[in-house]
């Protein structure tokens, strides 16, 4: 089978597609024919050796897939060949076939296509966990989403709206902001051309935002914190800009603001029941049309490294997917 391989940590352009032997599932694993594999920001960091997880070399990147079960390990009870599944894999997704831990698979919901299935779980679970469990976002509150046209950003807009918030989307181009409006943002801020803090204050009548959802970091975090209302909450999601901001803590004291870390992956181990409830909520919102992942581009396996490069280069809108078996 063909797989994208990272043979040495380094430039994304060094990734290669090669024929390798089909993997054999262990007792609690599934072998899945990959129909779609979503590209996520950590894929780009991982192949460059810049991520906290450094898989042994060579490895195939790709953490989030959908596909059809080909074979199952001896101890697998809930899946059989032919089942359509979504799975989180950490690595291995950008390949024609992928090994999946059966505990990390879930059935592809009825009515959901493979591309949507691959693009749903990581970003939407992160945003629901962040906004509900960590940020305690309430209906009627104002939510500001930074990097709002990116993968987690789009999901935060949709979930914020589904939870009844007024959503202000902030991104770096008018083109990206047009997409944010299309998925439901009430207001937009172009932080390349407008002053983020002043514009949030203007849009909230001077009160400030109740919650800021921040997957970007870098130069955007501090002005966003300065535009938080009394008891406003900053949700620290990630640092796509590459720089971890250092915030003066008097900004928290002065308005009883909270700076809250969000780590969805580990939260599922600490609160598996809460995670299942969140998945149910997402399925219900999908079934009723409240959320709809935006898949903006599709790549064949031969161009998977271009897909990874475009997320590293700030070019992606919503989610992009690799279709290894097309
Ligand atoms: N904490 C968690 O549990 C969790 C879960 C999932 C993801 N994350 C993290 O969330 C972050 C965003 O993930 P994502 O999948 O949404 O990525 P994404 O689709 O690439 O979106 C990130 C956004 O960041 C902005 N950005 C600003 N400076 C950038 C730069 N120098 N390079 C790239 N992007 C830049 C871009 O928007 P503009 O051009 O509009 O500024 C981009 O759309 C990543 O750091 C990821 O690791 C965290």
Named at the architecture level, the CATH assignment of the largest domain is: 3-Layer(aba) Sandwich
Distance between the termini: 13 Å
Strand content: 25-35%
Classify the helix fraction into a percent range. 25-40%
Q: Structurally, how many domains make up the residues?
A: 2
Which shape, going by the Cα principal axes? globular
Largest sheet: 7 strands, mixed
Q: Overall pLDDT, averaged?
A: 97
- Give the helix/strand class: alpha/beta
CATH superfamily of the largest domain: NAD(P)-binding Rossmann-like Domain
What is the CATH topology assignment of the largest domain? Rossmann fold
Q: What top-tier CATH class of the largest domain fits best?
A: Alpha Beta
Number of helical segments with 4 or more residues: 10
Rg on CA atoms, Å: 20 Å
Ligand types: NADP nicotinamide-adenine-dinucleotide phosphate
Structure, described:
The chain is α/β, with parallel strands linked by helices and 326 residues long. It folds into 2 domains: 2-108 and 294-323, Medium-chain alcohol dehydrogenases, catalytic domain (Quinone Oxidoreductase, Chain A, domain 1, Alpha-Beta Complex); 123-266, NAD(P)-binding Rossmann-like Domain (Rossmann fold, 3-Layer(aba) Sandwich), CATH 3.40.50.720. The protein is 31% helix and 26% strand. It has helices at residues 41-47, 114-134, 151-162, 174-182, 196-203, 221-226, 250-254, 264-270, 272-287, 304-312; strands spanning 2-5, 16-19, 29-38, 64-72, 84-88, 97-101, 105-107, 142-146, 166-171, 187-190, 209-214, 228-236, 258-261, 295-300, 319-323. Strands 3, 4, 5, 6, 7, 14 and 15 form a 7-stranded mixed sheet that branches. It has a 6-stranded parallel sheet with strand order 10-9-8-11-12-13, sandwiched between helices. It has a two-stranded antiparallel ribbon with strand order 1-2. Helix 2 crosses helix 9 (272-287) and helix 8 packs across helix 9. The protein is globular, with a radius of gyration of 20 Å. Bound molecules: NADP nicotinamide-adenine-dinucleotide phosphate. Pfam families: ADH_N (PF08240), ADH_zinc_N (PF00107). GO terms for molecular function: oxidoreductase activity.
